[in-house]
Amino acid sequence: MIGRIAGRIEYKAEDHVLIDVRGVGYVVCCSERVLASMPRAGEATALFTDLLVREDLLQLFGFPSLVEKEWFRLLLSVQGVGAKASLAILGALGPDGTSRAIALGDWNAIKAAKGIGPKTAQRVVNELKDKAPTVMAMGAGPVASAEDVVIDDDAPTPAPPKTPKPAPAPQAVPAQTEALSALTNLGYSPSDAASAVAQAVGDEPEATTSGLIRAALKLLAPKS
Questions:
Q1: CB neighbourhood size of 12 (10 A)
Q2: What structural domains and CATH numbers belong to the chain?
Q3: How far is CA 209 from the centre of its chain?
Q4: Domain comment text (predicted)?
């Protein structure tokens, strides 16, 4: 199993990238969103990968984080959802958007992905809703880093100097994870807690942990 690829980008196509790893080129299929976020040809990159094995085909799929890779694997487990459809959903929503849509039962958001019909979208939500809390609790998860990529001096396309990337917002994901944990500790079911937190995050993305807990508790309170 190939779980991670790190090397120099040779070229990017519409649905895949070729990454040179010490003279060996790996074709890695990615969503449009992931491809757009990757650096230019000649620069270093790293992706977590999932190897899909078929009778007559071996395909590598690449993701910038383990959370996105986990969603890809879960989406593939849904009947009628293949690799192309899974990438379409993740490409349209991203891992956080996918988590929120499934936790909230929002199949219309899933249906917005290219090639996803209403029946498939409903099936995705119904089959994965109970698994959303586990993925959401992972937080941002590890992110593939190109810091340790070695590019040989005699490579045909030298890598330009790296430019610092802005650090991700430090609070949003830990707050979501901590709020989920607090609500389940209070006795709420993981699926109910995930749905409430997802809605609270959608209403106020920059909320602190305590803010998310308060908002989620209001949503979970019995309606009079």
A1: 18
A2: 4-63 (2.40.50.140), 66-136 (1.10.150.20), 172-220 (1.10.8.10)
A3: 22
A4: Has three domains with a flexible linker between the domains II and III and assumes an 'L' shape. Domain III is highly mobile and contacts RuvB.
The whole model's pTM is what?
A: 0.76
Torsion on CA atoms 120, 126, 127, 128, rounded to nearest 10: 100
* Cα separation of the two ends of the chain: 53
Candidates 50, 45, 46; CA nearest to 70 is 50
Instruction: Give the DSSP per-residue string, 60-106.
Output: EEEESBHHHHHHHHHHHTSTT--HHHHHHHHHHHHHHHHHHHHHHT-
Residue 180's nearest CA partner among 191, 166, 194, 200 is: 194
Which residue, 150, 134, 66, 145, is CA-closest to 102? 134
* The two structure tokens encoding residue 94: 């991203």
pLDDT tens for residues 169-218?
A: 444 468 888 888 888 888 888 888 888 888 888 888 888 888 888 888 88
> What pLDDT, in 10s, does the model give residues 139-154?
656 667 666 666 654 5
SS3 call for 17: strand
DSSP class per residue in 152-174: -TT-SSPPPPP-PPPPPPSSHHH
State the DSSP string of 27-54: EEE--HHHHHHS--TTSEEEEEEEEEEE
